[in-house]
## 1
Amino acid sequence: MSLPNGVTRRSFDGTQSLATTGEPVYGESTSEGWRQWVPDRSKLGAMFELGVDTGLAGGETVLYLGAASGTTVSHVADFAGPTYAVEFAPRPMRDLLEVAADRDRLFLLLKDARAPETYAHVVEPVDAIIQDVATRGQADVALSNRRFLRDDGRLVMAIKARSEDVTREPDAVFADVIDRLKTGYEILDRQSLEPYHDDHLAVIARPR
Amino acid sequence: MNTEGAWFHDVSAGDDSTAQARIRDGEADDPADWPRLAVETGYADDVDAYYDELHSITTAAAETAVQERERADDQQLKHAVRAMDDCERTANELAERVAEWAGTRLADAGSGVGYARELVTGETSDRADADLVSLAQRVVALDDEAAELRRTIETTAPDVAPNLSALAGPVLAARLISLAGGLESLAKKPSGTVQVLGAEDALFAHLQGSAPSPKHGIIYTHEYVSGTVPAQRGSAARALAGKLTIAARIDHYSGDRRPELDAELDDRIETIRSGGDAA
């Protein structure tokens, strides 16, 4: 597996870590213009750290669902092309405004990822959807946003078991979410995000 | 060239406020190659210029929307819960006056807001009764207003503070936000302070050395405190305050819902109530 263009491994204070170039966002270490990408704080960062083949090459058009405060989306905007970031909560959007101030191809949308028709008039067809939404019905979010994905595009998704059902075994939750995903996607890879994120599963898929 | 559905459809160059409104309120069933369409229809000179424009408009639209949503949020909730309390308190006070007055005129006079309601729906026989009924109507109207405000709080609190509302219930969540002065200041308070919010008199008496430390403030209204036997109530109050504090911080700093908090609180209270752990 190779890292996307624009993502590299560098040494920060003696430890090897992923890095992208851009303005720092969340207090991460920087060195010679590179900013450290901390896998414990980013599910996509953890995927790269664990060697998941995301299919991301760098420079692609991205729809990012569940941008939160922008920890991950800031790195994505550093290595990807035009990046559309959807986030529903106003408080994290305030942090995202800071992130977007330094990234002129990052487009913020204060929208509900469960209602893609409210942003289809802005978002163009994309090469990749990166999804990290902490809500019940994560498969449905991926399915309803499939309309944005090009035929050869990739869905890069972190499923959070506890958002679906806190009382059930994570593996059972993952199986259900994947079954539902299969109605619209072909699953290419799946991998646990431990030890960086408990009870999270990375799923790579393409539209079918 | 059909750009119907595009955010820039029929928006003239430089009309930023219309463009922002279209970003916020527009809809389309499906995406399209908007950058190419914008160039082909002359909305932008080239794709780079389109993206520059899109960045500036989406950022401004997000900023405005954030400001509006936040203005509508915790401060509104604070006013709603205070207004509800004022209405309830005033209704009760006036109901007492109604009862006292009614006692001098009617043999079967009752008391409270419920009695004021009875008076309003009953028959009036003379002028003095009409004044009494009119006063009772104010009581009923205030009580109805309080109920209406409670409904407002029950629908808004879960938007403003989803985790806090789930753990505390919408009304107690609103009271805590109100007592702290806002969600941000609640999120910055230590759990020990949240535990005694609303018990300031007892806390100051304690600090002056004349009273035991209060074990709970307004969180006493939560079933997990009031429904726990007195010997373990302090532990229950501490556990509840701890989780409510975490919930308020998540609501303020992140905003996403974490259902696992509910389960952790339920477990903790169950342990305390079964006497398995007094800590």
## 2
Amino acid sequence: MNGMRRMVMILLCFVFLLAACAAPEVVELTVANVPTAVPATESAAPTAVPTPIPPTVVSVRETAVSEPTPAAEPTAPPEPTAVSATDTGKVTAGRTDDGAFFLGDPNAPLTVIDYSDFL
Amino acid sequence: MLGTEPQVIENYVNSGQIKVVFWPVLNHGNPSVYATVTAECVGQQDPLAFWQVHHTLFEKQNELWSADRDYFVQTAVAAGIDQTTFESCYDDGTGLEQVMALDAMRRERGVYSQPVFDIAGERYAGAPSYEIFAATFDAILAATP
């Protein structure tokens, strides 16, 4: 009877040992499965469209007054940084018909729209 | 575009081959809004100064998360902008209105992430190197009559 019980205990230990050693399922990041950037063409339907964070500000004045002060030390305002184009005075700047700012010859053969966030 | 912008301006904008348009994408809440309103209100006084502040804001990107109104006022003043006029634009909502309108337009155009570059009507997501930009520009310009 004791021998039987010992056999069962040994079997159980063996089963637990196997379970503990089983490797978790991990997908290795290799060159083959690195996600590739997809050109954001208008015609191509994006597979996953990131949800933009809607600005929650009601008005600049209101938030400037009521916004909680961050814990971090206030940073000194930056020194003005020279942009080569403005220094040389070679180019013009203005607004497009839509109201966005442009830099360069308004009649330049190629227009590049930079959709960006300062953050 | 901060990393590649000086070269693009030097080699393509100054030579009259390219016109660069900055279109705001407000994807990071209020800090995005304040920074963009600052650039907008600077640009209302001087479009060339807009590009100077645009460069400064990108360069000081990490500071913008905790920047307050005074920070943005000082940024504008440092660029040679009249403080009273700037504060009026910043506070009365005229700058905000323009910025929100542009942000709404980019959504209507299907732009949800940043940066996205529209080059001659083709859109590219991400921040390519200058070499990739240059090769793309050269190919398009060569095919342009």
## 3
Amino acid sequence: MDLISTDVVIVGAGGAGIRAAIAAVEADPSLRVALLSKVYPMRSHTVAAEGGAAGVVKDNDSLDNHFHDTVSGGDWLCDQDAVDLFVNEAPRELVQMEHWGCPWSREPSGKVAVRPFGGMKIERTWYAADKTGFHMLHTLFQTSLKYPSIERFDEYYSTDLLVEDGRCVGVLAIEMRSGRVVAFKANAVVIATGGAGRIFPFTTNGAVKTGDGMAMAYRAGVPLKDMEFIQYHPTGLPGTGILITEGSRGEGGILVNKDGYRYLQDYNLGPPDPWPRKKAMELGPRDRLSQAFWHEQQKGRTIRTPHGDVVHLDIRHLGEKKIDERLPMVRELARAYVGVDPVHEPIPVRPVVHYTMGGIHTDIDTATPLAGLFAAGECACVSINGANRLGSNSLAEILVFGARAGRAAAAFASAAPAGAFHAAANGAEAAHARLTALFMREDGTESVSRLRKAMNETMETGAGIYRTERSLQETCRMLAELRARYQRVELVDRSNVFNTDLIQVLELGSMLQVAEAMAHSALRRKESRGSHQRLDHPERDDDGYLRHSLASCRGEDLPAIDYCDVTITRSQPAQRVYGGAAA
Amino acid sequence: MTETVTLEVLRYRPETDSEPHFQTYTAPYNEDWVVLDALNHVKDHVDQTLSYRWSCHMAVCGSCGMMINGEPKLSCHAFLRDYRGKTIRIEPLDHFPIERDLVVVMDSFMAKLSSVKPYLIPKPEKPLDDGEHLQTPLQLMAFKQYTQCINCLLCYAACPQCGLNDDFVGPAALALAHRYNLDSRDAGKDDRTGVVASNPGVWECTFVGACSDVCPKHVDPAAAIQQTKISASLDWFKAKLMPGASP
Amino acid sequence: MSRRPYVRQVERSWWLAHPRYVAYMAREITSLFIGLYCALLVVGLVRLAQGPAAWEGFLAAASSAPGVLFQLVCLAFAAYHSVTWFALTPKAMPLTLRGKRVPGGAIVGAHYAVWAAVSLVVLIAAGV
């Protein structure tokens, strides 16, 4: 196999990865940074984020407010020192984006504008129309072109971390266009590969969200933290799962059931008026809204469509002018994909999987327990999002922790002596052999798409919005069976040039491992908190479970689930209160 | 009997094919489906060896550009209902070398994109502690439409000059340069002009306008290029008439 | 290396593949006829300078059947050239007035208005 030597390898070129690359080379311009991605950077899923990025800059707001909103939004599973750091650094990162050219929407005065968002007491979400992720990603990517020491390896699929002497020494990757296997030797590695929504059948996530980085770290012995917490975004389009931004509710949109009734008032989020009102009704946190849908569905009050049950998101009262100015993409998407013009008709929506709160266990400086390995963004769990993420915290998170990961990796790479690199010892040869074995397999009987579909179904059925002991046990059992069957998956395409069958087979392997961590973590957590809801354990149990779950890989055996403490500083767990009178 | 749709897809596997050739597939017809859904059905259930790029399925990542019945389109934004009753011919984007099947080699575009210095080159650097640059909604409006490019390359496929001249910097890259030139926070027009106002830059364009016709995001690169031609010409005259004067 | 990118040649007939390219080529060919008409006008000037007999000869040729046909064809192409040119002007010169984009139709309309006014002046001056 070929060998490329560099100082820092970053796997994943979305918002967090590109931010890390820029931070690394700004911290030390003499460093060589290799930025690997299985797709061209502009295709990373950051591009699809819509609503905005939260940061305190207005006079009517305070860091304390952002802190409390985030901690309570996360049902007190957030590490509060990390949240303090996050709310402190977010505003500066957002100003940095503006200095790099991000076209933030503005107030008439020329200052950046902010909009209200779910679960937040004061409006603080910076936005660029309703395509904030798109503008942020393109701003970051275009800015990265200024730095010659960032060397990009576009369409390189990373398969394994290379570990020697208890240290991460690089990454093995496939150059997709040629099939060439390349070992990257580095002094520090950052994983920024995003979440794993494609484990589920209905998701806002694009094809790339298959949890490859999480799986790589997991296999290398790094625990995955809080994997049971999977966010359903309340408003995705039926069928495609396309995201309809929370911003549409921030601007005043309402959710109604088949009787035209704003049902959220029945779930401790009311009263319905005055509206819009922060932290109430449709501006409640995502977990509560998605759970309300499930209950409405049980009561038979949702609307039947050929693509399943939906409720209606009504923004007609905003008027065409406001919709075209603040929510133009929402209008485009509704017209194109469900044939509805939201100026004249309500949009059919349903909860769809959107975000993975859990991920690679890191500390407040993005370091994992494996020396030389760092992680940031959706693939990581610091944790600032706890049991439920507030909308617009993620786009800010990728900047804050992407930058920290870049700086931390740069510092580590400069300080640490160059590691030993022996392909036999660090796993490169073994990984290469596993790939070759796929190509040589004569007895493959399982189809990658059938296995994937079975995984999707069992996860949605057993580990969806509401879970039970039985449903989770069945899902764990099914996943174990699928993992065994995966050993006989057939690689139909045996070619070298841009073999997407191979990529799908490898992605499925990642997803099955990550799904297993999710399901087992969920089975073990016998309480309800945030987005993890157990019908058989409906209450929150702080005595038993105010702790992070840690899922550790044990090869072909089932994962080991452990726990670690949550850092609580100044906000003691309390009731999550939304709705109520106007603030 | 469920209704079906016929796809004629241009295949090319460099290791086994001496040249590209069409292969026919059948997929179910669905009112809500796009061509990408049909391709995914083929890959999942009929032929796993078919290679193509895709990700977001909502026309924002720019991955899935292809020629569909001779027209450059995003396969996630080409609805089967618009092709009902017709055979759908799918080929890789024109004017790019074919890597494999529907995957084209994008290297030339990435290089052209970089060459126009598509990043903010500010007037004196403002310290972060001073907060954001002020930019009124009117100033934002001046360049906003040119920020919408998703780099899908449909414009390069549509533009005959891109087909005839490999060096042409091309619509998307030039539109992006224009985006920065119009941004009130930018002072980098002169840094870009060497590439933008060169022969393979805007002057290769003969205003066919096909790029703007096919752009799924209504960026209107043709407008960007013509405006750049005017502005570059005025700058050139100014420089000739007042040599040494600051721009 | 297994890679062997395939480069598709652009056919000479590329412009026949789609109506938008045919329309473009027609627009471009108008320049040929405008050029020919200019040549005709130059010839006319030369004949005028050569005296009344030469001038009468030129007028006779211009008003002959083939002469009139040629001028009509040139007029058609010149009109197509102008119409397509006007249609594209809003792209090349976007205007903002009092915080709003001036609609493209207004810019195009203004061009036609000026064209009509100038034509009127020319016709009056020519004693029509």
## 4
Amino acid sequence: MGVIALDRLEVRLGGRTVLNGLTGELRGRAIGLLGPNGAGKSTLINTLLGFHEPSAGGAKVLGLDVRTDRMRIRESVGYMPENDSFIGNMNGVRFVRYMAELAGLPPAAALERAHEALFYVGLGEVRYRKIRTYSLGMKQLIKLAQALAHGPKLLILDEPTNGLDPMARQRMVQLIKEVRKEGSMHMLISSHLLRDIDETCDEVLILNKGRIAAISNIEEERRSHRNFIEMEMTGSTEAFAEKMRALGCECASFAGGRVKVVMPDALSARDLYVTAAETGVEIRRIQQRRDSLEDIFLRAMEYEGGRVEHVSLPA
Amino acid sequence: MNAATDTIRFENVSKFYGEVLGVNRITLRLEPGVTTLVGPNGSGKTTLMNLMTGLVQPSRGEVSVLGLKPSNATEFFCNVGYCAQFDSFPRGLTGFQFVLDSLMLFGMSDEDAHGLAVEALERVQLDAAAAHRKIAGYSKGMRQKVRLAQAVAHHPRVLVLDEPLNGLDPMARAESLALFQELGRQGMHVVISSHILDEVDRVSDRVVLITGGYLIAQGNIHEVRQEVRDKPMQLLVRCDSPELLASKMFAVNHCVEARLHADGRGVFVRTGDVDQFYRILNEIAVEGLVKIEAVAPFDDNANAIYQYLIGSEGGTV
Amino acid sequence: MSVFLHDYRPYDGVTTSLWRRPLVLARYGMAEAWGSKITTILFIAALLPCVVELVMIYLADNPVARMLVLRGSPVLVINESFFVNVLETQCWFALVLAAWIAPRLVSFDLGDNALPILLSHPISRFGYVLGKFIALAWSLSYVTWMPVLVLLVYQCYASPEPWAMAHLGLAFGIVVGSLLWIVVLALIGLAVSSWVKWRVIATGAMFAVVFVPAGVGGITDAILRTHWGLLLNVPVVMTEIWRRLLGAPPLMSPQLELPNTAMAVVLLLAGLACIAVLNARIRAREVVRG
């Protein structure tokens, strides 16, 4: 059973068709949602939450139909919206408690879970202050706390690191990774920062102009492409490149001592070092280039009109 | 080239809002090119930018931008473009009208303003059709683009941008960064404030770190890194037997600290002498007892500098 | 010694049933509404007339006391008209209370854009409005039919038997009349608060919504020389309804009399207008056209 299953989903808003026939199934533990502005990411999230009615087709979240099982879906989902969304007059504990009770927890359990969630995200004494006095980082954390408090099965995070300074952003990414490791929740993370998605997600859904541009499993991508190697070295890169080509590799050298190599299976990294010693260069940096998320994304964008491209899909 | 007319200067500038500290005793000289302001929220970045664009006056000290003083308003504002962080627009305008109106404030003729507005919107890659829709219906990224267009439209020599990539999708980010780099190369002063440090790395010529209203560091990333003397250089070596590698490094006495990576397939090495280290590493690799998969400097970037200098005490809770 | 790790743990306890969720809203709404000192002050002020009326009832039923206090002033009769006046007074206080409380219930949520987070929980838009409505209605009940019924009960106790028997219908009239007013007030209150951004303006707008149509109605009456403009005059309409429910004699001359159906229609239309406003404003996401 997939986490999110889309079946020719079509959503029209304000006279425009925003989502145009989305079909696909997502199963990952943490699913990244990417796409240029206006691609329909927010609309998709809103439709899954039941804020918009599909005009055609359907969608299922955790096996529940978006049209008929709205309330049950909302019971199993925790949502962290992108924009400011809170009740300024309440303090942190009260707000999280309120949300937990709305999700169905009895009052005593709600209070306990609220404090647990606040402790987990790292809001200390601040939880007793009114939310309108919070800084941006704290507001993001309180949104996350209220999404976690009732123990949802799917966590939807919309731009969780928005506006956070580097340390807070690192903490947030760390939290997301911990939640993912804990294992009881799936996550759908929408972000513009490819690096965050790369670090936390194992599957991505890329939207473009209301259609699916790609569904891709990042883990699989990482495991392939072992033999593309990028290096930085001091010394004469040309001689090095010559030698490598003689050994049967494709090799290209660039300015600044950068060299890219595609090696046949028979060779290993040691051979690079041996060749380097022979040609009198010193390798300073060496890494296997994996098909990073950026490449997947750019490739997906190149398909005009949004043909569905399954880069690789788990069986 | 007269130095004064080519730099942005802050001489011992302080700014207080009543009792509240904005910035305290900042002395800076910014050359043309791309400069990034980095620091936690509330550290004084916005104050610094407001001082640069003449929106606030310093409580003490002097600000001079390209030799001009903010008090000389007409000339000053023709040369400075500002893209603020805040997301509000006058009601009922379309994107095009907003940029056009901002241009008209400079007193140019209708056709000139029209032409410049079209050019600016093209530069930020805002769709022509979308430009004539009301801003109220724009997505966050489109609003960001309109603000950017308004800042560059009048071809200023100094461009001050407060978190300009906020809300932009990956392609728009890459395009904007390329635009900033291009403008920097053309000799403009481009001052950007950003939290996304790997982008900072890619684009900036220099970095200004600020926290709690104080200037902590400024200069090129690598220079700053070298100056942080009490922290030796750290590298990550991924290999199949990290313990063996670590023991070899210790044996040749060039390794200050070695720490195994959590997944057991790499080791973080700190070394005081980078050149020697690489030579020894190459030798070990050739020897073949340790299969080396990847080598990369781990802290020669903005993120590491940020950690060292600002760290978690710098950001307040 | 043991080390305790406090990691995230999923929730596997009982959950409350779906229909109770609006009650959660109502409970928190009540806390919001009554958390302010001004609410308490208004509440106390609203009950002061009841105290006065209590004394009046006591005097009316106690000839000895009356003799001592009033020394033969005109007779105080406790009848339908008396209770209509009591109800009227309380209901106008209810208007003031509603004008203060309704913005507190809704504007806090709307002002900080809490609706997306609220509606992402298992509660529908109707459930949301229902919860707020219950909180508001309950608060208003504290100053309308509850104290008036208490007065009625006291009167039944204090006066001789036949009075109670003869006037039992008053209880029905009081409750229904109050509830009708509460429903109208609550709908107007919630609609106005959801429309207007700032609480103070919402409070003022509530009074405007109640009294401005009255002025308009009066003007049209004067120009067109009819009495139908009175239908827009909420105070007059409500007083008429209360008089009829409680069985008191009408105030106006027969040719100015307003038919029941007309009044019912007016109130229904007002209610529907409020519901339309709520439908438009209580949304998780706004769709901007063009």
